Amino acid sequence: MNNIPTQSTLFDNTEENPSSANSDFNAKVILHYPNPGIAELILNNADKYNAFDDHIISLMIEKLAQAEAQADLKLLILRSTGKHFSSGADLNWMKRMTNNSHQENLDDANQLAKLMQCLNDFSKPTLALVQGAAYGGAVGLAACCDIVVATRTARFCLSEVKIGLVPAVISPYVIRAIGERQARRYFLSAEIISAEQAQSFGLVHDLVDDQNQLDQAAEQFILQLSQNSPQAMTVAKKLIFAVSHKPIDTEVISYTSQCISDIRVSEEGQEGLNAFLNKRQASWIQPTAGKDKEQNDV
């Protein structure tokens, strides 16, 4: 398996992958396909600490839709260039919004809400790689991803109340990630949250020492997820949303029974069961070293 590009090599060797040559690496948002089945959505506004405005939000929505349309996609990686993941809303954008009408502010908020929903509901697994600061809306981006890996020096902050605002649009996703109890403190205090605290709250899954190890962590998740049925991972995400915070009633029980019945008779369900029973690799696993066989022999 080819290595995914590090920040230092991202803009080199575009001939190695045709999609690289077609990517605009000067854009503020880049959709990059470093390997078959892998997409990277990259915030590339490092001069402004990857702050986002209405234009960048629209670009991210557009790129997410393009990635979603890739039938063979297995993983979306959200990352950014530079020292910081994202400082949240761009200052110039916030200045413009102060002169906007209520309707214009509502339209802006709806676009941000659409971005969060598109990322949260993305049908394939999503992995966020976080370094440096993740402030304001950037905490929402992390909360919308299935898996989050951060450097130990990363820091998070729900800073909106410091400037008279609230983290409204991102709140459903952040509260699901860190819980109501932590939200009641950090929505109100705007304290900086260390990477270790973010991990203990559930916002971050794994911590690594530096940005190079972020790339290594991504490689590990690519390998891990490549063992799994793409269809089953998509259905598993839908299953989580369908049963999370719901009472275990007749409706939920019926849904879960229907879910497993449907996937058992599906093409990938049949292939996976047959592969397991016959001690062979499933068809969706790319033949590599013996490591894959070891995982299939569990």
Structural class: alpha/beta
Q: What's the count of strands? A: 9
* Range of strand content: 5-15%
Distance between the termini: 22 Å
Which series of helices and strands comes N to C?
HEEHEHHEEHEEHEHEHHHHH
In one word, what is the shape?
globular
Strand order of the largest sheet: 1-2-3-4-6-9
Give me the number of helical elements: 12
Give the proportion of residues in helices. Answer: 40-55%
User: Cα-atom Rg, whole angstroms?
Assistant: 20 Å
List low-pLDDT spans. 1-5, 7-22, 289-298
What is the residue-averaged pLDDT? 88
Largest sheet data: 6 strands, mixed
Q: Short summary of the structure?
A:
Helix content is 48%, strand content 14%.
Overview of the molecule:
The chain is α/β, with parallel strands linked by helices and 298 residues long. 48% of the residues lie in helices and 14% in strands. The chain has helices spanning 18-21, 54-68, 91-98, 102-120, 137-143, 171-189, 195-201, 211-226, 230-243, 250-264, 267-277, 290-296, and strands spanning 29-35, 38-43, 75-80, 126-130, 133-135, 147-151, 155-157, 192-194, 206-208. The strands form two sheets. A six-stranded mixed sheet has the order 1-2-3-4-6-9, with helices on both faces. A three-stranded mixed sheet has the order 5-7-8. It is globular, with a radius of gyration of 20 Å. Mean pLDDT is 88; it is low at 1-5, 7-22 and 289-298.
